[in-house]
Amino acid sequence: MEILAVFSPLFAFMVAGIFGKSIGDRGCQFVTCAGVILAALTSILLFFDVGFGGHAYAKEIAPWIISGDFNVSWALRIDQLAVVMMCVINIVSACVHVYSVGYMSHDEAKGRFMAYLSLFTFAMLMLVTADNLLQLFFGWEGVGLASYLLIGFWNHKFSANAAAQKAFVVNRVGDFGLALGIMAIFVVFGSISFDTIFEQVADKTEVTFTFFGHHVHALTVICLLLFMGAVGKSAQLGLHTWLPDAMEGPTPVSALIHAATMVTAGVFLVARMSPLFEFAPTALMVVTLFGATTAFVAATIGLTQFDIKRVIAYSTMSQLGYMFFALGVSAYGAAMFHLVTHAFFKALLFLGAGSVIHAMSDEQDMRKMGGIWRKIPFTYGLMWIGSLALAGIPPLAGFYSKDIVLEAAWADHSWFGNYAYWMGIAAAFMTAFYSWRLLIMTFHGKPRADHHTMEHVHESPPIMLAPLLVLAAGALLAGAVFYQPFVGSPKAGGSAHGEAVTETAHAEKPVAHAEKPQDKAHNQTPATKIKALSADISAEMTEALETVKEMDAEIAQGTDRHIFWGKSLKILPENDTVEAAHHVPKWVKFLPLVVGTLGIALAYLAYLLSPGVPGRIARMFKPLHILFFNKWFFDELYGQLIVRNARTLGKAFWSIGDQGIIDRFGPNGSATTAGKIAKALSRFQSGLVYQYAFVMMIVAIAMVSWFFFKSGLRDLG
Amino acid sequence: MISDFNLVPLLPEIFMALTGMGLLIVGVSQGNRATPVICAAAGAALSIAALVLLSLGWDAQTVMNGMFRFDEFAGFMKLLVLIGLIASLALSSRYLTQEDMARFEYPILIIFAGIGMMMMISANNFLTLYMGLELQSLSLYVLAAFQRYSVRSAEAGIKYFILGALSSGMLLFGISLIYGFSGTLDFTVLGKTIIGLEQIPIGLTIGLVFLLAGIAFKISAAPFHMWTPDVYHGAPTSVTALFAIVPKVAAFALLMRLLFQPFADMQEDWFQIIYFLSVFSMVIGAFAAIAQENLKRLMAYSSIGNMGYALIGIAAGTAQGAGAVVLYLMIYIVMTAGVFAVILHMRRQGLAVAKIDNLAGLSKTEPALAYGMLILMFSMSGIPPAAGFFGKLAIFNAAMNEGLYVLAVLGVVTSVVAAFYYLRIVKVMFFDEPADSFDKNEGSFARRVVLIVSVLFVIGFIIKPSILYECAMHAASALFTVAG
């Protein structure tokens, strides 16, 4: 089953990639969608088996490298962490695959696009099911490659190519750290297989590296190096500059890769390596600081951007910051929880934005939108759901996950935990504000697009809306449903215990029922077209409903988070912030909600009721606005400091080193020399018999002389 | 006189000699009208000889008063020779009529050359050796000049004859020196004599030098290679194919028998000569070919280079090395037969052409032929998974095991250089603007079969390389187990 869940996207990729021309666009779309949907269904089954049944296992497929002490095999590690990721990846990917069929309908290279998507899905699955660090690295690079291919998918656009290269190069910096981290692990543990590493970790806490005469704590170094990889892949501050540019790719790609899955690989990596991070408190502190700062900075930038996709991209970056500071305070379960909910509502937002862009004839600038909500009510509604979830309004998914993350940060009772909490609160406020800024600018007010575009505004076809429904269901429900298993209620007795249980139980019952009518409503509103949707999707919808029902049953039994996560996450008892998070004061719990509501209200005030306000505020805080609008000048800084110098250096190496030395004396030089030798040799070939005979005799005589000479030496010696 | 009168091991040779003479009578009485029949009969005779050979017991035995030796090695090499002869006869059949040289002597000469080669392979005495060698050479001289109205062909025949005579002279001089210093012409006795010697007399070494120089001419090892490009170029293409495919096998078999059996104890001496010949052949084969425009000349240099690689296996001096040589030759003759099948196909307006440029755009005009040639060229340049790669692999492997790193590295480097001209042919065929298409040959069935078999062999070798590898190793080990 796990084979089916992991390898069917690969199979689909190969079929679509190799036989793409012969099976045609339809064939490619069918085979890739079918492959990923199959993977999604099997991974849901795995989720129940492993997540609630507790049957974590590793399955070895084939030996890979056996060289001395270095021993690696291809193996699938199906544990709780992996199945959660697999579900997220496969479900979102299935939605995106189906959505792309509609979104890319005018593109010329549909088959190629679908093939790349499937390749990405497979690489991501390899990453999360890896049983050792090398296989993880394989998946890690695989998703990087797929991301590169997809960002630059419209390869006739210069900006797309540049963005693809930027993403690749910036990620390389992070990958360098990851590779070093893996090597360091091999040095310390003598293995890169997870089980072996985790078993030994408690014995290795005293190990140090000697580095330029300093003794440094080995685990801290390893964790920081691994985190460097995560920083690159998950676009944390410093290596984040590629993510906004990556929006050059087609919107489904942004939704799948740059919102829901690939960018969360860093979060997954840290969670996977939690047994190591637990013993490296300094590294955890760094993770927290990075995460909190990223959450804040990205939100400030998001306030000022006008490109609809870029706003969401910065929002993604900000939310990733939340996940990281949750990791940093050892609330791994909370981080994974936020990862899951975020995947749903952010993919929903992106695909919704894609639907808007589709409707607006490929316009992405929000200043040229507005007043279209009546024309595309369906998309509008879905964007509302996504935004509400993002802003953390109950009972949507974001509320549960964001709250537990912030509570955990506060409950860490350390200075960086507090820092993270307040940064998070500030970011939450801004998140709500820019989300509604986006909604209002896009959908309300007077139309700012030209007449022609406005006439064209139309609701997207059902094949694009149906996946949005699945994601909307996730955005609505994932928080309530998974709260219990992922972050659970306090284990000790006491008043907080009962309260939380009842609270969640109450919270999610009505939601579960509320979904059905809404679902029906959707089925009727956009005419009867929805009915014509492929059987796969409806099957998935019923699957999702069943999921909810079974969840109810499971939660009624009181599945605890420790039972759920099993051995896949390791938290030292003294670091158990998720536990502590359930006992924080009331104001800590309610503050995020309050600032969220406040942000929404302010956005209404500023953009709908008195539209002059934003301009005035921007003028009032001009320096600050410039800073935010120009993304804190990261790109310019890097351009001046690194890119320019690297370019100069590269040019020097190219013209002096490569052309001047290597080419001149290497390939070109040896080729000319070979040509000259050939000419010289063919001059010998005169065609005259007596010369040939002469050569033969001379050689024979030379050989005879040689032996005489040698025997003379022998006689003398 | 002859004490052990056992003619059984000679049956294939006797059969071929009788058939050859019989066909000669037919030819003389019927004239050139009978050529097609004689060609077919010669092919049949060669096939029957191969079957007879296969039906013999391949246990090692020496008959005719120690003149003639038959063992597994001889049997295997003779089989290769016969297969090579059949292939080159198949390649020739249509070409003879096309070039207006369909005379009945042609197949008969091939048969006699074959007998000579088989005698060389089985020689256990310098007299047998010389007799076989001369029978072979004389037949080949005539064949080279077979297109007697063509100046080129006549020139090739004369050149080959003069230089061949010179090399025979060297060979004979070497043999006489060896006889003078050892007192015997019999290989077995000679081997025992050399083992018995406390110190090798310099005369024996000099004799060996001249002997090897004579044989080096036959295998066209540099720097005794100078005749090769001219003769290959001038001789009728079907004869060039024969030259490239068969005589090398026989000469190599002779060389291996000499060096591994009677002169096994003088390895220190002959090693240096072989080393020198090998280095020269590889370098000249690789570099000189770059400047060639004519495919036949190119194949001449290619064969020089390939002999250089094969000599590495002899230089290794082990059973493994010998096995590698046998394997290498086997793959070489198959590939060469295929390439010549393509070259013989190249005709425009009734004339044979052999310029590399004539192949331009072959992939568009005759894609099947172009892909066949592509595979053969990849194999020639030693690109896996084609058979040529495994031949080189076996050779280099043997060299590495004996610590001949210089030879192995040089072999690899020259293979890279050689890859240039093989791949250039591919480039010309696939990427250049198409030239006029070749004449449509109707009914060149035999040639097509040769090409197909060759290509299939080259591709299919990888499926079970061990079969032929084991055969080659087994055959070569016969040289060592009964030595002395």
The rounded distance between the terminal residues' Cα atoms of chain A is 79 Å
- Structural class per helix/strand content of chain A? mainly alpha
Largest sheet of chain A: 2 strands, antiparallel
Please name the two chains that share the biggest interface, counting residues whose Cβ lies under 8 Å from a Cβ on the partner chain.
A-B, 25 and 33 residues
Computed over alpha carbons, the radius of gyration of chain A is 30 Å
Assess the beta-strand content of chain A as a share of residues: under 5%
Fraction of residues in β-strands of chain B = under 5%
Rough shape of chain B? globular
Largest sheet of chain B: 2 strands, antiparallel
Low-confidence spans of chain B: pLDDT under 50, at least 5 residues?
none
Low-confidence stretches of chain A: 492-534, 554-559
Distance between the termini of chain B: 24 Å
Q: Would you report the number of β strands of chain A?
A: 4
Which sequence of strands runs across the widest sheet of chain B? 1-2
Helix-strand sequence of chain B? HHEEHHHHHHHHHHHHEEHHHHHH
Oligomeric status: heterodimer
Notes on the structure:
The complex is a heterodimer of chains A (717) and B (484). Chain A contains 30 helices and four strands. By secondary structure, chain A is mostly helical. In chain A, strands 1-2 form a two-stranded antiparallel ribbon. Chain A has a two-stranded antiparallel sheet with strand order 3-4. In chain A, β3 (208-211) and β4 (214-217) form a beta hairpin. Chain A is globular. Chain B is globular. In chain B, strands 1-2 form a two-stranded antiparallel ribbon. Chain B has a two-stranded antiparallel ribbon with strand order 3-4. Helix content of chain B is 75%, strand content 2%. Chain B has helices spanning 11-30, 35-55, 72-98, 105-122, 126-144, 151-182, 187-196, 202-218, 227-234, 237-245, 247-260, 267-290, 295-316, 319-345, 362-365, 367-380, 387-401, 405-431, 445-460, 465-481, and strands at residues 61-63, 68-70, 347-348, 351-352. Chain B has one domain. Chain B is mainly α. In chain B, α3 (72-98) packs antiparallel against α10 (237-245) and α10 packs antiparallel against α14. The mean pLDDT of chain B is 90. Classes of the chains: A mainly alpha (717), B mainly alpha (484). The A-B interface holds A 674-675, 677-679, 681-682, 684-685, 687, 689, 691-693, 695-697, 699-700, 703-704, 706-708, 711 and B 158-159, 162-163, 166-167, 170, 202, 205-206, 209-210, 213, 217, 223-224, 226-227, 229-230, 269, 272-273, 276, 284, 287-292, 417, 420.
